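User: I'm writing a short report section on ligand binding and want a predicted complex to refer to. Could you take this sequence and 2-oxoglutaric acid and write out the structure as tokens? A short remark afterwards would be nice.
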Amino acid sequence: MQPNGTNGPSPRPFPALTAAQRYHFDVYGYVVIENTLTENEVGTLREALQKLKRDLVATGEPTRAVVRNARASAHKPHHIHLSHVMESDPAILDYLAHPRLVAMVEEVVGGSVRIEESEAIINSRDPNADPDAPLRYGFHAGTRPQYGTYTENGLYHCNFVKTLTNLTDLGPDDGGTVCIAGSHKIQCSQEDIIACAYEDPSLIHQVIAPAGSTLLFGEALIHATGRIRSDKERVIVIGGYTPPMFQAWDGQEPSAEFVAQTPESLRPLVTGSDKWQWKQRFRTLAMRAQTDASHTAA
Ligand SMILES: O=C(O)CCC(=O)C(=O)O
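Assistant: Sure. The structure tokens for the complex follow:
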């Protein structure tokens, strides 16, 4: 990852996913790429988010306060959801502009993108949760098949894509994101799909990966926060992306001051300034991933 604004963005690989990763994405609606970030990057991001959490909680009203233009959209003792974290620390923009990650997103969107949201979650086991209760999740999706998805070169594309990177190791009991595999293509009611998944839990896949790994998925995939059963805290950072003519999520447009200090080369990504000049690009499945040392974590 390059430091924010020092040398301009390095070129983004195309395609960024191997054929097998792309096939996995098409079949299940997601793919987990392990070790996209270095240990240093993980540590820097985790510290930046913990500091933001401390500063928001110290205001006494974390869901009303604004700290470095970030907010807490939810806060309980065991769970804080941070919104619009992009402006709060340069490491976070570095993450959101990470050439390899943005390249993966562009590949799935089918062209250039803008940042639509930047969020983070720091959570631990709910002390009031009954460990013997049947597993139930807050399943949701940000768009639906066909409405927000299309096919090109036989491959699935979505116009609302996220990168969720875990900044703590995620074992089976550590509450990794869960999703209903294949739901990104199923044009039935969400309630009916969710009922199928509870009837056959093998349809529910969960992220289990070392710190610094990225879950790439399109928001037509039905997904949710997993359940933490261990004593470990989970920290994740989230980037949301859309084509440039789309709007940012409510309250997540970058401030004028932030845009003014953003290097010009990153402004289209940060603001969507390309608008309807959308640069489309599509791969075929057989294309070999473009990988070199500058696009992979050590
Ligand atoms: O907490 C998680 O792992 C899931 C986050 C989520 O649902 C989202 O970003 O839309």
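A remark for your report: The longest strand covers residues 114-123. Confidence is low (pLDDT under 50) at residues 1-8, 293-298.
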